[in-house]
C-alpha cells in the first residue's frame, strides 16, 4: 500500500492518495486534520465528563483508574461501571445520529431533510412508546424492534404521501412535519390514557438521557451499529452521485430506486438504535452533517467518518454540559438545536430572497 501526497493532478486542494491492490482513493488533507481535531475534542470532553458527578474524582484519578488495575477500587468502580459506559454511549449515539442525518440530507438534497424534521425520529419514538407502555416490553431489543418498525412505517407513510409522479424535497419536509405532529399527538394521547407510573416511565425515557445506561445496553447497541455501519459504507459513494440527479446517477451505473430504499432503511435503523437506548436526542442529526460540511468544505453532507466524529463530539460535549446543569442530554440538544434550526431557516430564507 502506498500513501503519498497527490502531486500530478491539481484538484483545487491537497489530498492524500491511498493506492493498493484493493483500494484506490483520494482523501482530502483538510478532512484528516478535522478528524484529528474532533478526536482530541471527544477524548478531552469524555475524560472531563468522567470527573463530574456526586462522587468527586480528579482527572488524574480517572486516568489512573482507566490504565492502572492496582488503583483505588472505588474509583475504578465509579469509572468503569458508571461513567465509562455513559461516555461510550454518547460517542455511539452521536455517530449513529450524525450518519443518519447525513444519509437523509444527502437523499433529500436539503439541509432541513434530517430525520428530526421529517418525522422519522418521532415515528421511532412512537414505536418505543407503544412497546414500553402498551405492550409492556421494556428490554433493549424489544424497544429497538419497536423503534425500527415505527420509524420504517413512518418513513413509508411520509414517502407515500409526499410522492406523486416525482418527489420534491420541499414537499417531503412539509409532509414529514405534518406526520410528525400527528404522531406526537398520538403519543401524548397514549401517555394520558395510561397509569401515572407508566406515563412517568415513558416521560423520563422521552427526555433523552444517557444517565442510566450501562454495558448491558451498550454491547447490543454496538453490535447493531456495526452491522448497519458496514451496510451503509457503499452509500458514501452512491449518495453523492445521486445528489446530481437520477439521470446522471443511472448513467454512472447506480440504480436510484434501490439506493433510496437502502438509504431509507439504514437511516431509520440508525435512528432506531439510539431512540431505543437513550430516548430521542434531537437536532444532532440535523446539525452534525452541516457543521461537518463547513469544517471540511465538502460538497456533500455524506462523508462518513468526519460526519460521525462531528456527531460524537456534539453529543459528548452536550452530555458533559447536561451533567453540569443536572438535566438530560436531550434537553441540552433541543435547546441549542432549536437556536440552530432558527438560524438555518433564516439563512435559507435569505438565500431565496
TrEMBL record:
GO terms for molecular function: transmembrane transporter activity. Its main location: membrane. GO terms for biological process: siderophore-iron import into cell. It is a multi-pass membrane protein. InterPro entries: ABC_BtuC-like (IPR037294), ABC_transptr_permease_BtuC (IPR000522). It is found in: Cell membrane. It comes from the Bacteria. The chain crosses the membrane at residues 32-57, 87-105, 117-135, 141-160, 172-192, 218-235, 261-288, 324-346. Keywords: Cell membrane, Membrane, Transmembrane, Transmembrane helix, Transport. One of its GO terms (cellular component) is plasma membrane. The keyword Heme does not apply. PANTHER family: FERRIC ENTEROBACTIN TRANSPORT SYSTEM PERMEASE PROTEIN, FERRIC ENTEROBACTIN TRANSPORT SYSTEM PERMEASE PROTEIN FEPG. Belongs to the binding-protein-dependent transport system permease family. FecCD subfamily. This is Iron ABC transporter permease. The lineage of its organism: Bacteria, Bacillati, Actinomycetota, Actinomycetes, Micrococcales.
Amino acid at each position: 500500500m502506498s500513501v503519498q501526497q497527490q502531486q500530478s493532478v491539481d484538484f483545487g486542494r491537497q489530498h492524500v492518495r491511498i493506492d493498493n491492490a484493493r483500494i484506490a482513493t483520494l482523501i482530502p488533507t483538510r478532512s484528516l486534520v478535522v478528524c484529528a481535531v474532533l478526536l482530541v475534542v471527544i477524548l478531552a470532553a469524555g475524560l472531563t465528563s468522567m470527573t463530574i458527578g456526586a462522587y468527586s474524582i480528579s482527572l488524574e484519578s480517572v486516568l489512573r483508574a482507566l490504565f492502572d488495575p492496582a488503583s483505588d477500587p472505588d474509583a475504578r468502580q465509579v469509572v468503569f461501571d458508571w461513567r465509562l459506559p455513559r461516555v461510550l454511549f454518547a460517542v455511539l449515539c452521536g455517530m449513529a445520529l450524525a450518519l443518519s442525518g447525513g444519509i437523509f440530507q444527502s437523499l433529500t438534497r436539503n439541509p432541513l431533510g434530517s430525520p428530526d424534521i421529517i418525522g422519522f425520529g418521532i415515528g421511532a419514538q412512537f414505536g418505543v412508546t407503544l412497546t414500553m407502555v402498551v405492550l409492556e416490553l421494556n428490554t433493549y431489543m424489544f424497544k429497538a424492534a419497536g423503534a425500527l418498525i415505527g420509524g420504517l412505517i413512518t418513513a413509508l407513510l411520509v414517502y407515500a404521501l409526499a410522492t406523486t409522479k416525482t418527489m420534491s424535497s420541499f414537499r417531503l419536509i412539509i409532509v414529514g412535519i405534518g406526520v410528525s405532529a400527528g404522531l406526537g399527538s398520538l403519543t401524548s394521547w397514549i401517555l394520558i390514557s395510561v397509569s401515572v407510573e407508566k406515563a412517568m416511565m415513558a416521560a423520563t425515557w422521552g427526555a433523552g438521557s444517557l444517565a442510566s445506561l450501562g454495558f448491558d445496553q451498550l454491547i447490543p447497541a454496538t453490535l447493531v451499529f456495526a452491522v448497519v455501519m458496514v451496510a451503509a459504507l457503499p452509500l458514501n459513494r452512491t449518495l453523492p452521485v445521486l445528489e446530481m440527479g437520477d439521470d446522471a446517477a443511472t448513467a454512472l451505473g447506480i440504480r436510484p430506486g434501490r439506493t433510496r430504499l437502502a438509504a431509507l432503511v439504514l437511516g431509520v435503523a440508525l435512528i432506531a438504535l439510539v431512540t431505543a437506548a437513550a430516548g430521542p436526542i434531537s437536532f444532532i442529526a440535523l446539525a452534525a452533517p452541516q457543521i461537518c460540511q463547513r469544517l471540511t468544505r465538502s460538497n456533500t453532507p455524506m462523508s462518513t467518518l468526519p460526519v460521525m466524529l462531528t456527531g460524537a463530539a456534539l453529543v459528548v460535549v452536550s452530555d458533559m454540559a447536561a451533567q453540569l446543569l443536572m438535566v438530560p442530554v436531550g434537553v441540552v440538544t433541543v435547546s441549542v438545536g432549536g437556536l440552530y434550526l432558527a438560524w438555518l431557516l433564516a439563512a435559507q430564507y435569505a438565500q431565496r430572497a
